[in-house]
Q: What sequence folds into this?
């Protein structure tokens, strides 16, 4: 190999290592911090590998009982009501995200198929309407929605969140599925139609099984989009009846009366589900993008 | 294979979401009271609630705590939405007038005539801070002066035997300490835009120079040339430029500024007087025993005295006599002498955390005096509280909004983005704008 | 690429007449979107036309455009608009550069690239606020690992206050944003790269083309549609940024990171002026909508003249 090829190779390795460090480094640092206590976190220089690793942070969050290292602690080293409410918050997050994912799949599949295959009056108009709504920023509708939900009696309920998240994830999943469906040749469905099948039937019996990977990707987007959402969670929730993980985590992390270590442990617990989700659904997601963007 | 894995993941997620949360079923007592606080010593509060419940088993106190920096914003939203409004809550003299003017908290005089008599046993500036339109809105949770602290051992190491008595002296001392390489940033404050204490620190700097913010008619006087306010801003600018004031102060809240003291990386700070109890606690501080309180530097040494108190919301009178009685028992137990005249909660805060108090009889309580004596020069603290403390000027229904605006403007001045004169002008303009509405 | 945003022709349909089916099938989506996204925007307009201060719950007089006038004429609005524009420009550059650069690396063979293709999804999977909490700790002026790393390597003589410095604080927002959203850009670019026919590159190699010219004349044209899509997405993202500010800087120091959405939030929750906050929020919505539509218009004319 000549020098050009070697430097090319070496450069590739260097770039790769830096990239991996940038991608994964912060997560590893978080995990390491979650196994330390505050007194170790506040040392200079920081300990990348904990000198006194401990499970106490996780113990405190999960059992809600203060371990010996946390009893008698004072300002800036303790827990708060919110820090200890992580598990109910995660439960809310899961329920909301799962329901949003399912509702999203049903509504967007129906709509996407219609836009992909059918001609009807108002097709362009309604499509434009739905997609353009995606461009409306959350902050612009947060206060009106707050008032709306209050009047509907849905403030501080999971239903308010589900409703809002469905509305905000639908345009994207619908667009995505529409593009995805568009690349399947319509001949099989047409054959079925001639045989007497309904449009709905062709959708459910023919296209859905074929397009399952795309549907999986769309489901993943809907789930992860709902799980991560913060602004509406902040505005529309008041108590643990509906507070989701991002809301509780942020309240914990910026509360300087709460131990940093505790908030990191809570954070680690909260990022595991979406990371797992992303890894499991990885091939569907990448295939989905290829299908939509690249053909 | 992938499909199988997928199915199991989905099943797992769904199952996990169906797991019940662990609540504890409790026999339902008659009167619930929603109690909202900012996060400080939540386990102590819960313990107090437990002992309260033993005394009043028919009152069910439900505690919710919020981050101190976001506390007023959150409480406002709770009141506006109505659905999660508190019954009893912490409040501060910053926000009393705003919340009272909005009708969210109610005057105690109207429902509990005994408060007038009880108020005579509170110190004057506390009553002032809890009153609006001649009526009293709360019972004190704690009351402290803003105090100037220094690390005596580091001071001695730098060759100084006395704390600074003027702001110029403070700058000189800090520069010497920095030059000698003892500490990189000797001074630090909690000046974050989210920190309600920051305005109290700043106003102390103005008071200690003998300055005023407003005249008797409520008009701003701080924008006059050469005012104490402008001088205070210039001092902070100079301290930042000389790099003796930690630039992180602009993002720090009071807790973080305190952490720097505890770690021995800072020599001077201004905070509530009770913070000294933590600084001198060997369990928390490497430098325990080295911290001392001093008069606020400046010609008059005056400082801000504040009161944080328990207030009652407009929800309680709506629920009738039972709720009102429960609320009074609560307020009396937590902020007052309590059923046995023993000041159960106030004494505990004083003994366990050194929190200052506005209840006059406690000033002669020997146990408290002894406990305070372990971390502070008690006569000096009492002198500061009684002779040098003034209520924040400008407490009006719009003070809270002006406060939030001013925090940002002051930061711009400290960073040199605006001149001190321009900043004072902006602050005055905002005051007049809010006042007109 | 604009065909991505515009509807194509539907397939011709054999079989029975459709009747109500199309309308029924899009009805749920339409209803939800109209109720949650569009109606509230109109309601925001209504709120902004009245004087609405949270501490005066009973007085809501109609004030016409006064809230808008007061908001626009204040120098704080201009300042937050400038901050937003600057931030948006930085994240557009950062994300697209990251997306293109990283996707080129991910497209290579080998174990390193393969591992990177796995790891690339992780930052994107982490919710924005949680990523912000992680980076807040990394940027911590006294105990953060970034300062420690830079000092250890010798790049900085002493620890830097990232979050407390008005010039650096916006950069922390940019870095966190690129860390979290760059991977998505990279995946999108990668998907586009992978359909570029190999023989184009081989032909170029035979003709003696170097790395840069193959990139410029082969890769880039294929990537262009995706880059344009990213441009639109990142512009909208920049104008709407809220989560990052809430966690990392709270608008400070000295309002250096007070961008439009945060300004609207502060108007409502700190200054308790619902009328002005709603006016601002409505304007943000109109701005992003307008920008996006301009983009779409520009891009569709581009498509007509290019290729």
A:
């Amino acid at each position: 190999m000549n020098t050009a090829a070697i430097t090319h190779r070496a450069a590739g390795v260097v770039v790769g290592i830096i990239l991996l460090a940038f991608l994964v480094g912060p997560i590893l640092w978080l995990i390491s911090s979650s196994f330390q206590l505050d007194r170790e976190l506040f040392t200079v220089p920081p300990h990348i590998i904990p000198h006194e690793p401990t499970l106490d942070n996780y113990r405190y969050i999960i059992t809600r009982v203060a371990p010996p290292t946390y009893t008698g602690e004072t300002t800036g080293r303790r827990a708060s009501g919110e820090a200890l409410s992580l598990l109910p918050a995660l439960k809310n997050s899961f329920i909301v995200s799962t329901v949003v994912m399912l509702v999203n799949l049903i509504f967007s599949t129906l709509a996407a198929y219609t836009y992909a295959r059918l001609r009807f009056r108002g097709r362009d108009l309604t499509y434009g309407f739905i997609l353009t709504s995606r461009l409306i920023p959350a902050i612009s509708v947060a206060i009106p929605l707050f008032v709306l939900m209050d009047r509907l009696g849905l403030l501080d309920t999971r239903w308010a969140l589900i409703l809002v998240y469905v509305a905000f994830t639908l345009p994207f999943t619908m667009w995505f599925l529409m593009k995805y469906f568009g690349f399947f040749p319509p001949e099989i469905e047409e054959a079925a139609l001639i045989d007497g099948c309904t449009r709905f039937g062709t959708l459910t019996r023919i296209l859905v099984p074929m397009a399952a990977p795309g549907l999986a990707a769309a489901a993943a987007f809907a789930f992860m989009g709902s799980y991560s959402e913060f602004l509406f969670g902040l505005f529309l929730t008041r108590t643990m009846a509906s507070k989701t993980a991002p809301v509780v985590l942020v309240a914990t992390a910026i509360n300087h009366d709460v131990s940093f270590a505790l908030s990191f442990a809570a954070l680690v617990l909260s990022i595991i589900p979406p990371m797992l989700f992303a890894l499991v659904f990885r091939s569907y997601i990448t295939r989905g993008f290829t299908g939509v963007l690249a053909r | 294979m992938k499909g199988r894995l997928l199915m199991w993941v989905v099943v797992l997620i769904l199952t996990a979401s169906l797991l019940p949360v662990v609540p504890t079923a409790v026999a339902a007592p008659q009167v619930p009271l929603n109690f909202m606080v900012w996060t400080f010593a939540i386990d102590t509060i819960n313990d107090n609630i437990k002992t309260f419940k033993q005394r009043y088993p028919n009152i069910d106190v439900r505690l919710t705590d919020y981050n101190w920096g976001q506390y007023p914003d959150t409480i406002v939203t709770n009141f506006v939405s109505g659905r999660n409004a508190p019954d009893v809550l912490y409040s501060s003299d910053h926000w009393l007038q705003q919340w009272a003017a909005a009708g969210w908290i109610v005057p105690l005089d109207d429902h509990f005539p005994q408060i007038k008599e009880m108020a005579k046993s509170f110190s004057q500036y506390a009553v002032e801070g809890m009153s609006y339109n001649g009526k009293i809105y709360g019972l004190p949770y704690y009351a402290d002066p803003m105090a100037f602290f220094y690390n005596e051992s580091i001071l001695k190491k730098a060759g100084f035997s006395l704390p600074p008595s003027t702001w110029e002296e403070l700058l000189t001392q800090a520069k010497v300490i920095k030059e000698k390489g003892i500490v990189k940033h000797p001074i630090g404050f909690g000046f974050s835009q989210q920190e309600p204490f920051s305005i109290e620190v700043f106003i102390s700097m103005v008071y200690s120079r003998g300055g005023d913010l407003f005249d008797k008619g409520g008009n701003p006087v701080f924008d006059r040339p050469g005012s104490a306010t402008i001088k205070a801003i210039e001092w902070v600018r100079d301290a930042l430029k000389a790099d003796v004031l930690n630039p992180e102060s602009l993002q720090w809240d009071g807790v973080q500024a305190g952490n720097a003291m505890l770690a021995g990386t800072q020599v001077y700070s201004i905070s509530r007087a009770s913070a000294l109890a933590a600084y001198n606690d060997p369990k928390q501080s490497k430098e325990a025993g080295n911290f001392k309180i001093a008069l606020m530097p400046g010609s008059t040494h005056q400082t801000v005295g504040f009161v944080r108190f328990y207030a009652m919301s407009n929800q309680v009178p709506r629920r009738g006599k039972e709720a009102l009685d429960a609320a009074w028992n609560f307020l009396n137990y937590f902020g007052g002498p309590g059923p046995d005249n023993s000041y159960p909660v106030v004494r505990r805060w004083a003994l366990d955390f050194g929190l200052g108090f506005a209840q006059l009889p406690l000033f002669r309580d020997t146990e408290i005096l002894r406990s305070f004596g372990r971390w502070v020069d008690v006569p000096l603290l009492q002198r500061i509280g009684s002779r040098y403390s003034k209520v924040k000027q400008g407490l009006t229904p719009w003070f809270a909004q002006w406060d939030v605006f001013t925090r940002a403007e002051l930061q711009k001045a400290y960073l040199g983005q605006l001149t001190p004169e321009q900043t004072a002008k902006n602050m005055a303009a905002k005051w007049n704008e809010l006042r007109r509405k | 690429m604009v065909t991505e945003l515009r509807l194509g022709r539907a397939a011709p349909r054999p079989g029975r007449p459709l009747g109500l089916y199309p309308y029924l099938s899009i009805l749920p989506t339409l209803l939800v979107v109209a109720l949650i996204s569009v109606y509230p925007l109109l309601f925001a307009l209504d709120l902004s036309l009245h004087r609405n201060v949270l501490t005066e719950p009973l007085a809501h007089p109609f004030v016409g455009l006064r809230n808008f006038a007061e908001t626009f004429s204040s120098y704080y609005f201009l300042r937050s608009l400038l901050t937003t524009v600057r931030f948006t420009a930085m994240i557009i550059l950062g994300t697209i550069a990251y997306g293109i650069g990283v996707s080129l690396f991910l497209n290579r063979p080998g174990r390193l690239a393969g591992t990177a293709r796995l790891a690339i999804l992780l930052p994107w999977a982490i919710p924005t606020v949680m990523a912000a909490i992680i980076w807040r700790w990394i940027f911590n002026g006294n105990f953060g690992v970034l300062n420690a790393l830079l000092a250890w390597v010798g790049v900085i003589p002493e620890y830097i206050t990232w979050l407390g410095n008005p010039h650096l604080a916006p950069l922390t927002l940019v870095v966190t944003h690129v860390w979290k959203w760059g991977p998505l850009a990279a995946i999108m670019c990668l998907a586009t790269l992978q359909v570029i026919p190999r023989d184009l590159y081989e032909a170029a190699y035979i003709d003696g083309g170097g790395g840069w010219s193959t990139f410029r004349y082969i890769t880039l044209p294929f990537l262009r549609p995706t880059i344009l899509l990213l441009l639109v997405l990142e512009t909208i993202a920049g104008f709407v940024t809220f989560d990052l500010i809430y966690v990392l800087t709270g608008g400070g120091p000295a309002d250096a990171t007070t961008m439009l959405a945060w300004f609207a939030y502060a108007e409502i929750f700190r200054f308790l002026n619902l009328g002005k906050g709603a006016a601002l929020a409505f304007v943000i919505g109109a701005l992003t909508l307008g920008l996006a539509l301009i983009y779409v218009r520009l891009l569709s004319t581009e498509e007509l003249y290019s290729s």
